Amino acid sequence: MITNDVLRRVRFALQLNDTKMLAIFASVDNEMSVDFLHSIMAKEDAEGFVFCRDSVLSLFLDGLIYEKRGRKEGAVPVILPAKAVLSNNDILRKLRIALNFKDEDMLNALKLANFPVSKGELSALFRKSDHRNYKPCGDQLLRRFIDGITVQFRGTKPSTDAVEAE
Q1: At CB < 8 A and 24+ separation, what contacts does 79-86 make?
Q2: Nearest alpha-carbon partner for 112 in 146, 86, 161, 85
Q3: Radius of gyration, alpha carbons of the chain
Q4: What integer pLDDT is reported at residue 153 of this predicted model?
Q5: 141 vs 166: which has the higher pLDDT
Q6: What number is the average pLDDT over the span 123-135?
Q7: Rounded to an integer, what distance in angstroms lies between the CA atom of residue 93 and that of residue 134?
Q8: Is 40 helix (H, G, I), strand (E, B) or coil?
Q9: What is the DSSP string of 87-141?
Protein backbone atom coordinates (compact mmCIF):
# COMPACT_ATOMS: atom_id res chain seq x y z
CA MET A 1 0.00 0.00 0.00
CA ILE A 2 1.30 3.42 -0.79
CA THR A 3 1.52 5.87 2.07
CA ASN A 4 -1.05 8.23 0.53
CA ASP A 5 -3.60 5.41 0.53
CA VAL A 6 -2.92 4.59 4.19
CA LEU A 7 -3.31 8.26 5.11
CA ARG A 8 -6.59 8.56 3.17
CA ARG A 9 -8.05 5.38 4.64
CA VAL A 10 -7.13 6.21 8.24
CA ARG A 11 -8.55 9.71 7.83
CA PHE A 12 -11.82 8.25 6.52
CA ALA A 13 -12.00 5.54 9.20
CA LEU A 14 -11.49 7.97 12.08
CA GLN A 15 -13.57 10.77 10.50
CA LEU A 16 -10.80 13.36 10.63
CA ASN A 17 -11.47 16.68 8.90
CA ASP A 18 -8.82 19.08 7.54
CA THR A 19 -8.61 21.02 10.79
CA LYS A 20 -8.07 17.85 12.83
CA MET A 21 -5.49 16.53 10.36
CA LEU A 22 -3.54 19.79 10.50
CA ALA A 23 -3.71 19.77 14.31
CA ILE A 24 -2.34 16.22 14.39
CA PHE A 25 0.57 17.22 12.17
CA ALA A 26 1.15 20.36 14.28
CA SER A 27 1.31 18.24 17.46
CA VAL A 28 4.51 16.67 16.12
CA ASP A 29 6.01 20.03 15.12
CA ASN A 30 5.16 19.58 11.45
CA GLU A 31 3.26 22.64 10.31
CA MET A 32 1.49 21.94 7.04
CA SER A 33 -0.60 24.00 4.67
CA VAL A 34 -4.12 22.95 3.68
CA ASP A 35 -2.99 22.85 0.04
CA PHE A 36 -0.19 20.39 0.80
CA LEU A 37 -2.58 18.27 2.89
CA HIS A 38 -5.00 18.12 -0.04
CA SER A 39 -2.18 17.19 -2.43
CA ILE A 40 -1.06 14.22 -0.33
CA MET A 41 -4.69 13.17 0.19
CA ALA A 42 -5.44 13.22 -3.56
CA LYS A 43 -5.71 10.03 -5.62
CA GLU A 44 -2.67 9.05 -7.70
CA ASP A 45 -4.26 10.09 -10.99
CA ALA A 46 -5.69 13.38 -9.69
CA GLU A 47 -4.27 16.75 -10.60
CA GLY A 48 -1.96 18.10 -7.91
CA PHE A 49 -1.13 14.66 -6.46
CA VAL A 50 2.05 14.62 -4.35
CA PHE A 51 3.56 11.37 -3.08
CA CYS A 52 3.46 11.21 0.72
CA ARG A 53 6.88 10.26 2.03
CA ASP A 54 7.19 7.61 4.73
CA SER A 55 8.53 10.24 7.15
CA VAL A 56 5.31 12.28 6.77
CA LEU A 57 3.12 9.22 7.41
CA SER A 58 5.27 8.32 10.42
CA LEU A 59 4.85 11.83 11.84
CA PHE A 60 1.08 11.63 11.26
CA LEU A 61 0.85 8.29 13.08
CA ASP A 62 2.95 9.65 15.98
CA GLY A 63 0.65 12.68 16.11
CA LEU A 64 -2.36 10.37 16.12
CA ILE A 65 -0.86 8.55 19.10
CA TYR A 66 -0.46 11.90 20.89
CA GLU A 67 -4.03 12.85 19.98
CA LYS A 68 -5.62 9.59 21.14
CA ARG A 69 -3.38 8.57 24.05
CA GLY A 70 -1.68 11.78 25.16
CA ARG A 71 1.92 12.83 24.89
CA LYS A 72 4.45 11.14 27.14
CA GLU A 73 6.54 13.43 29.30
CA GLY A 74 9.67 14.42 27.40
CA ALA A 75 8.64 12.56 24.25
CA VAL A 76 9.82 14.06 21.00
CA PRO A 77 8.62 12.98 17.56
CA VAL A 78 11.08 10.76 15.73
CA ILE A 79 11.74 11.83 12.16
CA LEU A 80 12.66 8.96 9.88
CA PRO A 81 15.98 9.30 8.07
CA ALA A 82 15.76 10.30 4.39
CA LYS A 83 15.87 6.80 2.86
CA ALA A 84 14.13 4.94 5.70
CA VAL A 85 10.99 2.99 4.87
CA LEU A 86 8.01 2.60 7.16
CA SER A 87 6.96 -1.05 6.96
CA ASN A 88 3.37 -2.25 7.12
CA ASN A 89 4.28 -3.82 10.46
CA ASP A 90 5.34 -0.39 11.76
CA ILE A 91 2.11 1.19 10.51
CA LEU A 92 0.03 -1.55 12.12
CA ARG A 93 1.96 -1.16 15.39
CA LYS A 94 1.46 2.63 15.47
CA LEU A 95 -2.26 2.27 14.72
CA ARG A 96 -2.56 -0.31 17.47
CA ILE A 97 -0.91 2.04 19.96
CA ALA A 98 -2.95 5.07 18.86
CA LEU A 99 -6.25 3.21 19.13
CA ASN A 100 -5.20 1.50 22.39
CA PHE A 101 -6.07 -1.88 20.90
CA LYS A 102 -5.32 -5.16 22.60
CA ASP A 103 -5.02 -8.47 20.73
CA GLU A 104 -8.76 -9.11 20.95
CA ASP A 105 -9.54 -5.66 19.53
CA MET A 106 -7.18 -6.27 16.63
CA LEU A 107 -8.69 -9.68 15.93
CA ASN A 108 -12.19 -8.22 16.13
CA ALA A 109 -11.34 -5.44 13.63
CA LEU A 110 -9.96 -8.03 11.20
CA LYS A 111 -13.04 -10.19 11.70
CA LEU A 112 -15.30 -7.19 10.93
CA ALA A 113 -13.44 -6.90 7.61
CA ASN A 114 -13.97 -10.62 6.91
CA PHE A 115 -10.25 -11.32 7.29
CA PRO A 116 -9.91 -13.49 10.40
CA VAL A 117 -6.42 -14.35 11.60
CA SER A 118 -5.29 -16.40 14.56
CA LYS A 119 -3.80 -14.92 17.70
CA GLY A 120 -0.47 -16.55 16.83
CA GLU A 121 -0.43 -14.99 13.35
CA LEU A 122 -1.22 -11.62 14.89
CA SER A 123 1.54 -11.82 17.47
CA ALA A 124 4.05 -12.73 14.74
CA LEU A 125 3.36 -9.34 13.13
CA PHE A 126 4.52 -7.50 16.25
CA ARG A 127 7.76 -9.38 16.81
CA LYS A 128 11.17 -7.91 16.05
CA SER A 129 12.20 -8.46 12.45
CA ASP A 130 15.13 -10.68 13.44
CA HIS A 131 12.94 -13.01 15.55
CA ARG A 132 12.49 -16.47 14.03
CA ASN A 133 8.68 -16.23 14.21
CA TYR A 134 8.46 -12.72 12.73
CA LYS A 135 6.02 -12.34 9.86
CA PRO A 136 5.90 -9.32 7.55
CA CYS A 137 2.51 -7.65 7.31
CA GLY A 138 1.16 -7.76 3.79
CA ASP A 139 -0.74 -4.98 2.06
CA GLN A 140 -3.97 -6.97 2.13
CA LEU A 141 -3.85 -7.50 5.89
CA LEU A 142 -3.13 -3.81 6.55
CA ARG A 143 -5.89 -2.75 4.14
CA ARG A 144 -8.37 -5.13 5.77
CA PHE A 145 -7.41 -3.96 9.26
CA ILE A 146 -8.14 -0.36 8.27
CA ASP A 147 -11.42 -1.56 6.70
CA GLY A 148 -12.24 -3.23 10.03
CA ILE A 149 -11.62 -0.10 12.07
CA THR A 150 -13.75 1.80 9.53
CA VAL A 151 -16.64 -0.58 10.22
CA GLN A 152 -16.00 -0.26 13.94
CA PHE A 153 -15.83 3.56 14.06
CA ARG A 154 -18.20 4.50 11.22
CA GLY A 155 -20.54 1.52 11.25
CA THR A 156 -20.18 0.79 7.54
CA LYS A 157 -17.70 -0.88 5.27
CA PRO A 158 -15.85 1.72 3.21
CA SER A 159 -16.31 1.91 -0.52
CA THR A 160 -13.49 3.16 -2.70
CA ASP A 161 -15.61 6.16 -3.71
CA ALA A 162 -16.31 7.12 -0.09
CA VAL A 163 -12.61 7.09 0.83
CA GLU A 164 -11.82 9.25 -2.20
CA ALA A 165 -14.58 11.77 -1.47
CA GLU A 166 -13.63 12.27 2.18
Answers
A1: 79/55, 80/54, 80/55, 82/55, 84/54, 84/55, 85/54, 86/3, 86/54, 86/55, 86/57, 86/58
A2: 146
A3: 16
A4: 93
A5: 141
A6: 92
A7: 14
A8: helix
A9: -HHHHHHHHHHHHT--HHHHHHHHHHTT----HHHHHHHTS-TTSTT--PPPHHH
**Alpha carbons 49 and 41: distance in angstroms, whole number:** 8
**CA 29 to CA 56: how far, in whole Å?**
11
User: In sequence order, which residues have a C-beta less than 8 Å from that of residue 97 and are 6 or more positions away?
Assistant: 65, 69
**To 10 degrees, the CA torsion angle through 143, 72, 81, 49?**
50
| Domain boundaries of the chain, sorted by first residue | 3-165
pLDDT band at 72 (very low <50, low <70, confident <90, very high): confident
Query: 158 falls in which pLDDT band (50, 70, 90)?
Result: low
Residue 116 φ/ψ, nearest 5 degrees? -70, 140
Number of residues that this document lists for the chain:
166
pTM (2 d.p.): 0.88
